[in-house]
Amino acid sequence: MSDRILEKVQILADAAKYDVSCSSSGSKRQNHNKGLGNASDGICHTYTEDGRCVSLLKILLTNFCIYDCAYCVTRKSNDIKRAAFTVQEVVDLTINFYRRNYIEGLFLSSGIFKNADYTMERLVSVAKKLRLEHKFNGYIHLKSIPGASDELMHEAGLYADRLSVNIEMPTEKGLKLLAPDKDRKDMIQPMNYLKEAIILHTDEKRLLKTSPIFAPAGQTTQMIIGATQETDKEIMYAADRFYKGFNLKRVYYSGYVPISNDKRLPGLDTGVPMVRENRLYQTDWLMRFYGFKVQEILNDFNPHLDLDIDPKLSWALRNLSLFPLDINKADLQLILRVPGIGVQSAQKIVAARKFHKLNWDHLTKIGIALNKAKYFIVCNSREIFQKDFSATKIKQFILSGSSSKYIKHNTEQLALF
Ligand code: SF4
To answer: In this model, does residue 126 exceed pLDDT 80?
Structure first.
């Protein structure tokens, strides 16, 4: 690789690391002393639909941008080194990295030069050249540029596996404050187009095997958390609307990284705690895989997620009257709501109890986290965990890692555990 290209890779891979859709970018591990492997600039990992982990070249086409979004390192007023690849340079890099087995795909985003369509056309050209000229079958994730035309979004869908439009701020108010030049409608329009086109192409493919595939890995979006004052409720209600309105595969929550002392931002020493990001992702999973409605977890009485306990435990402690559940009788949907029981464990419980009644030993073998679950369930055992504890007491036991110490026998005797 020439020095000129290497410098571009360093600048444009570094600028791409703020996009969390592929979150392992930015590793600088070097291979010394003939060790095995070498993490290069711009290589990151993501997971495909079937659960495979693939390494991607994650890079911006350019970090020149006509916009000045306060939260973004690429904003035009930021005094940073700028660079831009040509379409051919990104194609060559991808093919070279692919042939050397460094990567299995490409994640390509960009600052906006000139206008949305001009930039989007170049992103699409990279994917098109890779697919048509090089018969490249690796994974391609293209960022869609807000305001790009339907025609370009259509072309993008024909060549990319996944497309994503970042909605940036959870609310329009936040967007107006930090990115006043941007219009939410410009983000919604390509998302809407993609949603309709994906449905249409999926239906066509069912009827006609030869019809082209279109964005088979769907569309995603990303929100920046903590740059504005939105509550967790506002963030997750926005995510819920986007999941429902646009059939999104994922919403990513990217904690704001302090990059500027702009008065509209929280300040240089106030990053978003990782645990907040983590709690938002846990809530997202509860909504997508555990049957929770967002309003059950966050509402006017609870606009913020607890940082010290996970949202499922928090919900269970607020709803103690629903517990304990009899693990040998309760519906799958209710078992999924027990803290410490994941989707797979819940399914295993329902399958196993067809053959015999389950006791604590069986549940331990199935792999549930008994340290949490034991306060919310009963099973085929003489012992039940003391169920008259208050929510505060249970939280205290779980957080301290201590046990309730007592098991209350069904015969009402108390015994030391
Ligand atoms: S348009 Fe995108 S790249 Fe440009 S400043 Fe805004 S967030 Fe950054």
So the answer is: yes
